[in-house]
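Appendix B: complex inputs.
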Amino acid sequence: MLPDTLDQWFVYFGHLHPVMVHLPVGILVLVLIIELAFYKKNNGSSPLQAVPFMLAAGCLTAAFSCIVGWLLSKEGSYDESTLLLHQWTGIAVALLSGLGWWISKNKNTYTKAKRLYRIVLMMLFVVLMTAGHNGGSLTHGNDYLTAELPPPLNSWLGSGESKDTSRFLRKPVTDINEAYVYADLVQNVLGDKCYSCHSSKKVKGGLRVDDEKLLFKGGKHGVVIEPGNIEGSELIKRILLPQDDDKRMPPQKQPPLTQEEIALLKWWIQNGADTRKKVSEFSSSSAVMPMLAFFASSPAEDSAAGISPLSGIFDTELPPADRAAIDTLSSLGIIVSPVAQNKNLLEISCVNFPAFDDDKMQLLVNVSDHIVSLKLDGTQITDAAFNNISRFRNLVRLNIAYTAVSSAAISKLLSLKGLEYINIVGTKVGNKGLLELHALPNLKKIYCWNSMVTNEGLAAFNREQIIAVGEE
Amino acid sequence: MEDVQKIISSQARRDFLRGSVLGLGGIALGSLLGCNHRSATPPGTGGSIEPEAENQPLVNPHFVPRAKRVIYLFQSGGPSQMELFDYKPKLYEMHGQEIPPSIIGAGRVSGMVSNQNSFPLAAPMTQFKQYGKNGAYFSDLIPHIAGISNDICVVRSMFSEQINHEPAVIFTQTGNQLSGRPSIGSWISYGLGSLNNNLPSFVVLLSKGGGDQPISNLAWSNGFLPSHHQGVQFMSGKDPVLYLSSPDGVDRMDRRRALNFIQKFNLLQKDKWQDPEIDSRLNQYEMAYRMQMAVPEITDLTKEPQHILDMYGPDVTTPGSYSYNCLLARKLAEKDVRFIQLYHLGWDHHGKLTSGITRATQQTDQASAALVKDLKQRGLLDDTLVIWGGEFGRTSFSQGRLTREDFGRDHLPNAYSIWMAGGGIKPGIQYGETDDFAHNVVRDKVHVHDFQATLLYLLGIDHEKFTYKSQGRRYRLTDVSGDVVKSIIA
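Resulting structure:
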């Protein structure tokens, strides 16, 4: 019974710390202001009568703050290094104000050690500010002061991005079955929910989870992961504690782990907390499926739902296309747009520039690698436009409807291995050109209505997997 | 003398007030304007638009889209699902009998039939046949749509939350039953922008000769989005876009000079107020100027060959008819207009259903099918999503007396049918199923928000990430629900 009550008293006094600390801060700052204000008038003998008393009061309240502060530090999970600095600067405040009081309390010592007194006061100011600032950082977080800086100051201080650096970015997973459970999935979850306090940035409770060795080493209370034993693993226990429990992780104000994320961690520990195996090598479990589905980027999920994947070309990683080349095209009224966000592949449309002709094709060569869709319907191009077309190696969709293009141009398209869609509606392309399209391995759709292609030509073409729409 | 005193004292008070307003107000204004040029919305501009820093259009879709354009053939009034797409043999057998109470259950019926004490089932006024590779049933009323059954996906399991026209239309078009939110077209126009700089990205076509239920222009409203994203209505007749053409004798260059001059004024005002609506206005002026060239070309149907006109049916030459608008829609799609919204009224058959639905289908069947065929032969159906559907369905029981000659059907939000084609939709399938009375969905329910989420998905947009913050809340087209119906995506 007794230790419990004692504990409660400790906690109670600990919570007095935030109230207490403001007393010494206020008192001692006032001392410094008085000393500054009366610096000239007072250079004769001793300081104002009230000053020694105030220093004594500052010293006592600071000391009391230190004690209750120490009690408080026992219960919370604070950032170790900041806490340590706060602790010692706090103690320094008490000691320095005590020293100041001792020097200033009688004329004798003061006149002898006036210079020392002033140095003590200056040091007091420095440690007081440091202690105060660190205390603020401990309770409100490191970026409390700077987070809401107005933009001009913010950029001036060079901390414009500071708000976002703590945000952990998930690594993309391309093929879920080939993903490493630990490196690709577990670390993703830990990174999202735990790194902010348990990584190289901060090491609360002596635990770091961003490093394999340190994660298995555990924190100051011991090992947190017992391979194969969910119930025995402190990591899981802490996560599952009720929300208002002080030992629960992540603490109350931080976003908690979702049920799916917890299922993933459990699954990993259950399977021996292996750090080298892939998803396919783990025994599958229905509980973990939602999380795996989440990690599997949309293509895998889509194919599960029966959605046919888009051309692999859309996944091609390319450096951004030449800005100047795009600007030249745009200035002519040619619409150049990235195929999607975070993709550098381009779609080109001449819907607003029907004067586009063979010579202008040269302008596209500068961005030839990037073009996946080329819409040239109704333009002035002829067969000659396609002399350079083989360089458009990522072309998936080509629309040359209602142009003067003829069968002769088709042979030049045969190097476009990724081409899936071609629209030759209203062109002079005939049966001969259509037959040549046979050579394109990935072609899926041909639109040749209103061209020279006849029903006989279509019948002769007849290849499976290709939908050819034309004369009826 | 007293009066003079009064004036003097009031002036002093005024001076004091002015002083304090200028002083304190200045400080307050400073914080309002802030360092990042955030400005208070000036009074009298609707006040709904705040230049929120986070309100940035997507510009590019979230992921590679399957559809680039949408043509939405809205059939306003509530087309009867059991007269068109949802074949229910049971209804013929049970004609005249009461609908089982278990089917209606606690479900809502409208005020128009709530004091009816008999709910006799009415057999569909038409017969059904099987069509296409999947043998789907289509009614004899829609032979042309039945003819493209291999190209379309019929969703028979739609359901809505609204039982009256206006809220149900607004719900389907904006994701919320109360008007005031942006419509689908406005969201798309705002999010993805235009594919053609000379035409608006959201065009509205209202067909004439439908019925008596009016449609409010709130259905194509921009809501809280900048106002140049509202649907641009093309009228039938000589001037498809009102006030677009220059008055006789006014040269295009004069127009340009006038616009440049007005622009200077607007930019001055914008510097002063920082009102984003001024940008909208500038955009609209410039768009109108460019449209002066582009629109006449599109609305000129004289160059269409006769066999194309024949496809769309006899009404095609009547400006403002549904057929005419379908052909116009194809031409707009050819020119890469992002979102083309048609409305056809006249599906609200509370009584005399037989004649009403015959008329509605005669007006719409051939042209709807022709549009899909025409887009397909031009290679446009691949990346153009065509949607045919209304705001809710109709009851299998008769509204009013069931006579030998005729009957009516009341509104039914529980179940209705729509169809979609192209733009990444699986062709030639039927999705979802209703009970024997087409009254409740029994398999693969598709909520209005699911439909909207799917539409956005096809355009490469994640509906959960596509938001706009207005008056302190982030809004989505799909509000707070909606799942992409992946089973109908090719």
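Confidence is low (pLDDT under 50) at residues 158-167 of chain A.
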